[in-house]
Amino acid sequence: MPRRLPKVDVVIVGVGWGGGIIASELTKQGMTVVGLERGKERKTEDYFMVHDELRYALRYELMQDLSKETITFRSNTRIRALPMRSYGSFLLGTGLGGAGVHWNGQTFRFLPYDFEIRSKTIERYGEKKIPEGMTIQDWGITYDQLEPYYDRFEKLCGISGEENPLAGKRSSPYPTPPMKQTPAMKMFAEAAKKLKLHPYMMPSANLSQQYTNPDGVSRAACQYCGYCERFGCEYGAKADPVVTVIPVAKKTGKFEIRTHSHVRRILHTGNKATGVLYTDVTTGEEFEQPADIVVLTSYVFNNARLLLLSKLGRPYDPATGRGVIGKNYAYQVIRGGATGFFEDKEFNLYAGAGSLGMTLDDYNGDNFDHSDLKFLHGASISLSQTGQRPIANNPVPSGTPNWGKEYKAASLKYFNRALGVGAQGASMPFRHHFLDLDPTYRDVFGDPLMRITFDFEEQDRQLAAFTADKCGQILKEMGATHIDVRRELGPYDITPYQSTHNTGGVIMGASPDTSAVNNYLQMWDVENLFVVGASAFPHNSGYNPTDTVGALAYRAAEGIAKYAKGNGGLLV
């Protein structure tokens, strides 16, 4: 029998950005919070002088062990899903701070169009513009309603940036100036302006200068070492939960973190959650943690999986389109882009930072006319200088032999003469893209794995080809002597890395008929259960998701506090 522990006000499942923000905000108000994290403890000191590309970038030190828990994947319902046994398309983080430790720090706000995508699309183009099977829906919240929470998250992190001329209105400027412009970024900006586009500096959680946030947490400026993505920051310059919200929560004396704690079920009676069941993975002992409020703040797949395993919410059925848990899984169209090779220019591409770059949104959202195009939404287009680490970086022009003398010569010539301009495309949901429990494969505890059913659609292929051409045009204007444009987008392949921006499965909306949670991320069916993270996104935008995750977490924290102080019921 599991050992029953003393009851607390709130238990949170997963201590990353979502869990850290929830814990920080609620403990400030005197609530007792327990955070259950299945991975290990982390601190900044763990990364002092550890620029080890092999260990972290290629052997995935900060990611979960796929031999113990993974996902299964299939491209359609007619075939059997198989487990992901080695890392490829996306990376599943684990440990205190979650993906907030090993992210790049690119901190974009979604566009106003995103939050009212169905309404705005129909208003401008008519309902026939939406392809059959595409299940876009409004989010149940507008950009203007979410903007104050974006502002809070950006001030928490000290985001370095400059105003995006094509984005929603801001209530205040970025808290710190933009990062340094490198020669390559200046070339990109000049070329884009000649093409009458609107470049701006990428909003960055890598600090441009020393900063003290509203909670009194001080952090140092970025050193441009180039070890951000897949690495923890040894300087604390990259905002992450371990150096921002978690210390604030712990300082209150109201927050207890239990690492190595794998939550397996949400306990419930009727339409109320009563706590969680978890296993201490170091001893195998099981515990019940009772709580007045349960908050899921783990990664997309685990949020949906825990609900399905706990038989909470209505599982999505792609055959009928009914149900909500597992609905609207979306990924990202990341393959469209171009690489330019320069004969007469050399760059220092091994220096950089995770969100050092220049971006434009002229082809993102509905910032351009889609009337004659066979896709909706679009992509942000960027030149990023994240730091080309030596093992993984070896660009050569197309037509170069794959080995031998010519290959070696081209590798030596172009290792600092190749620039990539990439498109980060939106992913629209379709009725036949979803998450459910795999009927065959199980984890080490005997629980079914999460199964993904997904493939790229004609929408994605059209978007990739369109944005790749735009990337090529910019590189041509920059003076590249050889340009390789990646226009083709084949079937989705889970093998090569693409993006860890998975979204959906526990989506938000204005009605329990079409969504799992309301705009406070409170479950319609279980009023004291909140589900925080990118699992709430009804589709994925042409940006990184973290800023929107952080903003929604702040709104959820506000909702949880209101719920705790009130007489229960659904928040409006």
From TrEMBL:
Asked if the Swiss-Prot or TrEMBL record annotates the protein with the keyword tRNA-binding, the reply is no
Q: Name one GO molecular function term.
A: oxidoreductase activity, acting on CH-OH group of donors
SUPFAM superfamilies, alphabetically?
FAD/NAD(P)-binding domain
Glucose-methanol-choline oxidoreductase C-terminal domain span = 437-553
Q: Which UniProt keywords apply?
A: FAD, Flavoprotein, Oxidoreductase
State if Repressor is listed as a keyword: no
Residue span of the signal peptide, if any? none
Q: Which family does it belong to?
A: Belongs to the GMC oxidoreductase family.
PANTHER family reported in the protein's UniProt record: LONG-CHAIN-ALCOHOL OXIDASE
What is the official name of this protein in its record? Dehydrogenase
Organism the protein comes from: Brevibacillus borstelensis AK1
